[in-house]
Amino acid sequence: MKRNHTMMQFFEWNVAADGSHWQKLARLAPELKAKGIDAIWIPPVTKGQSPEDTGYGVYDLYDLGEFNQKGAVRTKYGTREDLLEAVAACVRHGVTVYVDLVMNHKAGADETEVFKVVEVNPDNRNEVISEPFDIKGWTKFTFPGRQGQYSTFQWNFEHFNGTDYDASQGRTGIYRILGKNKSWSNHVDDEFGNYDYLMFANIDYNHQDVRREMIRWGQWLVDTLQCSGFRLDAIKHINHEFVREFATEMIKKRGQDFYMVGEFWKPDLKSCQKFLDTIDYKIDLFDVSLHYKLYSASLGGKDFDLSTIFEDTLVLTHPLNSVTFVDNHDSQPHEALESWVEDWFKPSAYALILLRKDGYPCVFYGDYYGIQGKTPVKGKQAELDPLLYARYHKAYGEQKDYLDDPHTIGWVRLGVPELEGSGCAVVVTNADNGEKRMFVGKQRAGEQWTDLTGHHNHAVTIGQDGYGVFPVRAGSVSVWVLPTGKDSRGTEDDVEA
C-alpha cells in the first residue's frame, strides 16, 4: 500500500560552514528513510558570495562546488562530488531530493559598471524620489574561475532592474535601473507598492535573454543532479508569469512527477490562493498561514482557542497544494522572519501536521537535530520520533475530527485493512489535563491502546460501542495506538471507555 510521505528540510541557518554537510546527508539517508522521511529539501547548492554563505547570496548558478571562486572550491556545504554522492545515497535508500533554487537576485559581482538609475521610496517602490543619475553598481558577473564551462552567459546591468548600493558614493538605497523596457515587474506581490526588489542585484524577468538562461540552467541542474524536485525561494518577488513558465518547462523536461514547492511568505490566505490560480497550480506552497497560527497558539497558551487552529489556513482550503511546516530557517531565532514556535507547543504542532490526512508535512532540521550559533537550541528528536513512527505506521484511513473545545481537541484516523494495527487517536491540550471521548470503530472493541508519547503508562480499552476515552497531560499531546503486533484484551490498569 501507499505509505504517507514526509519531507525534511535538511539544514538550518547555522549549519557549520566546514563543507561537511553533504557528507552528513549521505551518512544519514538510510536512518531518515527508516523513520519514514522519504524526501529531503536541501539548501541552495550553488556558489554563494563566500564559503560561509548559506547559498541565498547566490553568485554562480553553475558552480556546485567545483571551481575556485569566492574564496574556495567548495560551497558552505561541500564539494560538487560530495553533493552528487549525497543525492545518489538518498536515491539508493528511496529518499527523493528537492533542491532549493534562489532565482530572485545575484550577489558578489566580479566588476562594477556605471549606469543610470532613479532612487525609489523603500516604503513605496512605485514612488520615484530622485532625478535620473549615474551610479557605479556591482552588476557585472564574468565568473573568471569557471571560464565559460556549462554556460557562456555573463551578466551585466541590463539583466537586472534594481540594486541597492552605489560604489561611487558608498551609499545604499533602492535604485531602479533605467533603460529600454526597464521597470519593476507588474506580476509580483504588491507589498511596498511593488515587491519586485528584495536584495542585491535584482534579476529582471522582463528580459527575454534572462528568462531563456534561467530555464536552461534549471534544465541543466536537474540533468546534473538527477533530483526529484525544486523548492523555489522568495517567489512573491519573482515575476509570477515566469514562475509558471519555469515550472511548465521543468515538468516538460522531467515529467509530471517532478515536484515543486514555493516559498510565498504571506499569511494572507487570499494572496496565496490568487498566486496558485496565476500559476495554474503547477507548484505547491508552504502553508505560512498555518505556521503563524501555530506560532500564535504557542505564545497564547490557554488563551488561544485551539478549535480555530485550522481556520484561514491553506491546508484547509487547498489541502492538495499545501506543504505544512512548524518552523524553518527564516523563522528560527534571530533570523529575518523570526516567529519561533515555543518549545512547550512544538510536539503538539508537529502532531497537527504529521498525523492528519491533509497537507504534505515538512520537518525542520533545526527542530530535529538542533540549532547551532550564538543561542543554540537542542534538538527534539526524542519527542518527534514517536510522531514520525505514528505517521508512517498508524496515521491512515478516514479522519474524524473533534475540534470542538477551545482547550482540548482531538481527531482519530480509523486505519486501513491493508496495514494491520493502523489507526490512531490524537489529543492536544493547551490547558490542564484533559480527555476526549472519540470513536475508533466497533471492530476495535476490547483493544488496549497505549500512548506513543510516553506521557501515560496505562492503556485505554476500547468500549463495545467503538469509543475510547483518551486522556492528555496538561499542555501536551498524546498519540494513542494499538501497539504493533499486539491484540491484548484488558488489564487492571485499563481506563475503561
What do you see in this structure?
- By secondary structure, the protein is α/β, with parallel strands linked by helices.
- The chain has three domains: 7-103 and 208-394, TIM Barrel (Alpha-Beta Barrel); 106-203, Elongation Factor Tu (Ef-tu), domain 3, CATH 2.40.30; 399-481, Immunoglobulin-like (Sandwich).
- It is 23% helix and 25% strand.
- Strands 1-2-5-13-14-15-16-17 form an eight-stranded parallel β-barrel. Strands 6, 7, 8, 9, 10, 11 and 12 form a seven-stranded antiparallel beta sheet that branches.
- Its cofactor is Ca(2+).
- Ca(2+) 2 binds at residue 204.
- Residues 5-391 form the Glycosyl hydrolase family 13 catalytic domain.
The share of residues in helices is 10-25%
* Average pLDDT over all residues: 96
- Unreliably modeled segments: 487-497
CATH names the topology of the largest domain as TIM Barrel
β-strand percent reads 25-35%
- Taking the alpha carbons of the first and last residues, their distance comes to 32 Å
User: What's the architecture of the largest domain in CATH terms?
Assistant: Alpha-Beta Barrel
Structural class: alpha/beta
Radius of gyration (CA) equals: 25 Å
Number of strands: 28
Name the CATH superfamily assignment of the largest domain. Answer: Glycosidases
